[in-house]
Write a structure and sequence with these properties.
Largest sheet: 9 strands, mixed
Distance between the termini: 39 Å
Number of helices: 23
Strand content: 5-15%
Length: 554
């Protein structure tokens, strides 16, 4: 099913325009929705009655390996986990770390003992290892040392851990990388499948691993140890530290980004056109939950904390008018329309909230979020077609004054050591062959200048033959003419660029919560907080992890 085929099936309001939606200030206040990848995965696991089969070979301290097998979409998949002793001095979230508490491989099928032995040697070296196409995902994680110790101590003493401590941290382990898509000899991505589905499955199984590991160590200490309760497991997700390596992805995959955003905007438009307020009770309950979530969301970054506190106050005042909104002919449109008078953060929070009760209207759109290409260069047509595309979709770039030093101050490049994206100041001696092509506005302006020597009726093929260096930006403009939500309409090399805005947008589509920025270039998050553990997952509770809270509103 294509995005466009599914879009025609339901009445919908006008989509929010790309010029409004695809700005960094708005992308940087994104919230997860029921369309997020981990949310759709949980629903599918529940609908398929998927169960996780666990086998472990751990010693009394929890060192060794274990497997967590599940069948998803008719396919056997197995997470293999290896644990080893790690000195505190070697524990680091940085990508340059070389040792971790645990390493993981998501295996396509059921691994043999030889597979486990071979992959264990490589997984423990992560990027330095080499894998094969039966490996779908590679990851590693470190313990939240104090919380992990508290949980094990409590269970070994025959009681549940302190819920307040679980909530304060939110995870027993945090991953520092989740690799997939052909890296290091792994399997290539299946092109048009649900985005990041395998990575999200790997993280869910890693969460199961953390529960099993804590239970095992506690029972090794005391045969009468308690086991983690369902509520305690729900309070724990998987932490993640994410930095610049993820940020350029949205720039490099315009068709995929377009499909993600187009699906979300289509879902919002469907709900706005819905004139039925029977979900109002569920919606108000979710708003109570959102208020609790906001109250418990605290971070160390001073400006981010101020922004959260401002949103709490704004949201509290906004809710007072819900009874009036819900009495109107199109209640969800009324709520969204009133939110437009508020901040972008409020608008994005309200958008997530109005989507949440309307799964029957929008969940089918989740099948439209993949992409099997990133656009193609078309040499047909004339120069006038390209000029019209520039005017419609790149006016923001043409209007930028790039002669100002601050407008062209930064450069995205690939590091020599880790081959990871980096962002730095543009130095005079910088080797341009190392630069990533994310100076979109400059490329657009250079192409527009070259186009000035051509008439609208001239063949585009003629322009491309005379100016072959503009082929890539011509392809990008043509792609955005068809996929308008695929371009971020801001200058990505300006001195004040905040990569964390890109990170938050992408992570919200993953389904992340509790964004905890550590600078403008990396953040900590939590995945699967509030989600049922695998043994408790049903079609009735699979969706119950929206804006997670430890104590749920009555």
């Amino acid at each position: 099913m294509s995005v466009h085929e599914d879009i025609q099936d339901w009445p919908q309001a006008t989509l929010r325009p790309p010029a409004e939606v695809m700005r960094l200030s708005r992308m940087g206040v994104s919230f997860p929705t029921r369309l997020s990848f981990l949310r759709s995965l949980l629903r599918d696991l529940a609908e398929q009655a998927a169960s996780v089969e666990t086998a472990s070979k751990w010693d009394s301290d929890g060192f060794g390996h274990a497997t967590f097998a599940v069948k998803l979409d008719g396919r056997d998949l197995t997470l293999i986990a290896w644990t080893s002793q790690l000195d505190d001095a070697d524990r680091s979230d940085r990508v340059i770390a070389t040792a971790w508490d645990a390493c993981f491989v998501l295996f396509d099928g059921k691994p043999t003992p030889d597979d486990i032995e071979h992959l264990g040697r490589n997984a423990k070296t992560q990027e330095a290892g080499r894998y094969h196409p039966k490996v779908l995902v590679v990851s590693r994680a470190n313990k939240s040392v104090r919380l992990f110790a508290h949980v094990v101590d409590a269970l070994a003493a025959g009681r549940q851990p302190d819920m307040a401590k679980l909530d304060a941290t939110g995870y027993l382990m945090r991953t520092t990388a989740v690799y997939g898509n052909g890296k290091f000899g792994m399997a290539d991505r299946e092109a048009a499948t649900a985005p990041f589905r395998l990575e999200m499955l790997a993280v869910y199984l890693i969460r199961e691993f953390t529960f099993a590991l804590a239970n095992h160590i506690a029972s090794a200490r005391n045969s009468k140890a308690a086991r983690l309760g369902a509520d305690e497991m729900r309070a724990l997700g998987i932490g993640n530290s994410t930095g610049l390596g993820m940020a350029p992805f949205l720039v490099s995959h315009p068709v995929l980004l377009n499909n993600w955003v187009l699906v979300r905007e289509t879902a919002i438009a469907r709900v706005r056109a819905h004139d039925d307020a029977t979900k109002s009770g569920e919606f108000q309950h979710l708003c109570e939950r959102a208020a609790v979530h906001l109250q418990g969301w605290n971070v160390d970054d001073e400006q981010a904390q101020v922004d959260i506190e401002d949103l709490r106050v704004e949201f509290r005042g906004f809710r007072e008018e819900f009874p009036n909104d819900l009495a109107k002919p199109y209640p969800w449109d009324a709520i969204m329309h009133r939110a437009e008078r508020g901040t972008e953060a409020l608008q994005e929070l309200i958008a997530s909230l109005v989507l949440e009760p309307h799964g029957e209207l929008i969940d089918g759109l989740c099948h439209c979020m993949g992409a099997d290409d990133d656009g193609q260069l078309r040499a047909t047509g004339n120069v006038g077609d390209l000029r019209r595309g520039l005017e419609e979709h790149y006016r923001w770039a043409l209007d930028l004054d790039l002669s100002r030093p601050e407008a062209d101050a930064m450069v995205w490049y690939v590091s020599e050591e880790k081959l990871e994206p980096r962002l730095g100041e543009r130095a005079e001696d910088f080797r341009r062959e190392r630069a990533m092509p994310h100076d979109i506005a400059r490329q657009v302006q250079a192409m527009a200048e070259a186009l000035a020597n051509f008439d609208d009726t001239d063949l585009l093929a003629t322009f491309l033959m005379r100016h072959p260096r503009h082929r890539n930006i011509v392809k990008r403009v043509q792609t955005i003419m068809v996929h308008p939500y695929g371009e971020i309409r801001d200058n990505l090399v300006a001195v004040d660029i905040r990569p964390i805005d890109l990170l938050r947008c992408k992570l919200a589509f993953f389904g992340a919560s509790r964004f905890d920025p550590r600078s403008d270039r990396w953040t900590r998050i939590t995945l699967y907080a509030g989600a049922p553990p695998a043994a408790e997952l049903t079609t009735e509770n699979a969706g119950d992890c929206f804006l997670p809270v430890t104590v749920r509103p009555a």
